[in-house]
Every structure is written in structure tokens, then in C-alpha cells.
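$ fold --in a.seq
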Amino acid sequence: MRVAVECSSPLLQKSLELFLGTYLDSSKKSDIVIRDTKCLNDPKCFYIANNEEADLLKPFSKSQLILALEKRYESLHPKKEQPTSQEESFEDEGMDFSVLEKRIEFLTNEYKENVLRAVKAFYEK
């Protein structure tokens, strides 16, 4: 997921750049463009504001931002392949925590694999 930030507020611009360090890219190459002004008919646009029409309401945390962007990215680029062993599909429940559950499971499995790789490399020497 590649994200560009185009905000008229310098404070929001800098905050988003700090939050999204590894995801940042130019607006031409990005999958999503974050703006603090309302966008018309632009599917790449992700609107952040204080009103009900916004994709993400202010104030927000870094994790809320990342989860909202991942959800938008998945809606723009639906996966056509079967879920891998690391990313099981979850059924929708009353509250939609599926994105968060997938992310936690993926990160846990990735961490486990890295630890096992490090232990194996240590003992193979």
C-alpha cells in the first residue's frame, strides 16, 4: 500500500507523514491520497475531517489511521487469490474486527518465523 499526503493544514500534513513513514510515496505512484479537503469522485482520495462525511474523523490514533487505510486499500484492490496460511478468512461479526484480527495474526506469525529462523541460524553455526 502506497500513500500520498496532500493536506492544507501543515500540522496534519506533518503528523500524517510521521505516522505513515514507510507507506509514503508520490501522489502519482500512490494507491491512496489523504486530503483534508473534500474530494469529488476520486476513488483514491481518503478524506480526513471533523464532519460525518469524512473517511476518518479527527482526532485519530496511528493505529486507527493504518486500519482505515488498509480497509480502503482492500476495497480498492480486492484479493482474488485464496487466503494464505498466514491470513485466514474471518466471518463478519457484530463489530468488524476482522481487519485487526488479520493484522495481528499476520504479525504474530511473521514474528514467530523470524525467531525460529534466528534460532536455527544460531545453532547451525
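$ fold --in b.seq
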Amino acid sequence: MAAGIYIGSTEGYSGKNMIVMGMGLRLQKEGFNVGYMKPVGAMPQEINGKMGDEDAFFVQDVLGLKEDPALVSPVVVTQDFKVRAFSGQEPDRMANIKAAYDTLQAQRDVMLVAGSGSMYSGRYSRLDGVRVVRDLGLKCIVIDRLRKELNYDYLVVLRDTLGDAMAGCILNDIPPNYMNEVETLLKPFLENNGVKVVGVIPKDPLMGAIKVGELAERLGGKIISAHNKADKVVENFLIGTMQVENFMTHFRKNKNSAVIVGGDRSDVQLVALEGACPCLVLTGNLYPNDIILTRSEVLSIPIIVVRDDTFTVAKKMETILSRHKLRAVIKIKQGAQLVSANLDFEYIKGQLGLK
């Protein structure tokens, strides 16, 4: 029987795929036969006539696995599924999950089971992470990604709920200025409350970044200058709707931010270009004047023109950057290295009884 570990998180988009792939690649390198499952797939996708989960297809691909999508994600959350679950007409699908898990783990040394959303997501259909961990008899590691602060209370409550099944937590996306507090205050607090900190992963701008070319595509816009720099990386964004003086103050603090600005605001556009922003995003389908275009070419800073208004583009950018999936090969490598370098693999293997 394979040892099984569930990778969950305190909220969605916390880095589960990165951790699962990083752990899987590292354990494979050490000679273990690794299996993978995502019991509840929240992103339905059909490939070659088979329905599965978009992330699950991707992770299988990275780990070189070729299991049947119906086993890897026995429950896929479609609109129909939700309607049935909310109205109490969807049968309990835990038996399907158990059967699929038993089939997949038969030939493996270790099973990595990925959560969907937070540990309590899926409670409406009685398929939340806490229940999956209990019913499959798994150990569990919970990722907490720093957004404004860490969810330390949530982690302690989970430990109270899961007991020894909770093997620990991973603190993800920790910027340098927060490391000291994590090491001196939060880590000791968590460990005194029975939550082992299995790893602290530093913030790496590359992991949330997106290339200008891909950004243009996602925003439904087009690059109109400095095309040869479409592989520049954008880590953040600034909105240039304010007065130039105010904009300059913000801009100095936020290097490497794309600047979203109306196509008619040449004053802000020029400041952003001269300040070497990675790219300009001009809204309202308005093209810049010749001076801006020339400076853009001279400074090799691409300009993207989009149809939407500034507010709509800003909302889209926020979604793109917070949910930007780990698709590029460079990111997979970087993510795998981050995981390998910052997780206590000896402890994890000890929890799983792997020699």
C-alpha cells in the first residue's frame, strides 16, 4: 500500500500545484514511484473525449504520468453537479473517490493527493479536504500563502480538527522583510501549538510574473511597438489615472510594474517610459502620439493597446497576476527548485514511512 499525503491550503491559489509538482519531481529523483490524484476537479476540461481537471492534466504531464482522468479526478465540478449538490440530489461521491484512490495507489510507493480551493471548499457536496483526508486515511500538509498576513489561527484550528493526520504546514510567498517575524514569532507559535512548519518558501517574483506577449493576449490587446521585447516580464501593475506628480511618487516605489493608462494621457505615458516600466497598457483603444511611439521604440519598452476602459483592464490584470498558472517551463523548474531547497523532505518521508 502506498503512503498517501494530501496537499491542501488555507485558500485557493496558494501554490498547491507548485508544491505537488516540486515534491513529486524530488521524490521521483530519489527513486520513489509517485502517483497523483486530485479527487475534486474544479476546472473541467475535456481532452481526447475524456473529462478531467485542467490542473490535473497539467500536473500529470509534468510528472510523466498517464492515468485515466476519470480516476485522477473522479469528481469534476460542473454547473450541473453544483445544482444537484446544492439541492440535495447529488449522491455522496466519497465511495467513487475511495475506489479511484485504491486503484491508483496499487502500484505506487507514495500518492500525492491535491486539494481544490481551501481545506473546507466542497463542504456543500460533503467532499471538503478535511473529510477526504479522514476518509482516505491520509497525512496532510496545508499551504498558507502570505497575502496581507498569515492564517495562523486557521492552521491551529485545522490541527485541532485533524489531530496527528496534520503533518504540518508550508508558509509560501514570504517576502524578505517578513522572514524575521516568521522565524522568531510565527514559526515557534505554530510549533508550540502542534503545527510543524515543514517549509518556508521565499517570495520569488518570477513565480507570479507574466510575459508582455502573454499579457497582451490575455487582455485581448495588441502590441504596437518594441515587438522584440514581448518576453519582458511584468510582476505587478500601476494605474495612471492620477495627476502626474502623484503618479511619479507611486511609480518610484513600484518598479517592474506595467502601467495602465488612458491612451490620451501622454504626460503619464512619458513619465512611465522614461522611468523604464516593463510595458505600457493603453486603454480605450486609443493609440499614442508619435513622440510616445518613438520613445517606446528607442527605450525598447512595448506598448499594448486594449479596447477596455482602465477600470476593467485593472480588474483583469489583478485576476491574471493572482491566478497566473505555473505553465512556463522556466517556472516549473524554478518552482521545483524552490520546493526542493526549502522543504524538510526527511521529515515528510518520516511522516510517510518512506525510507
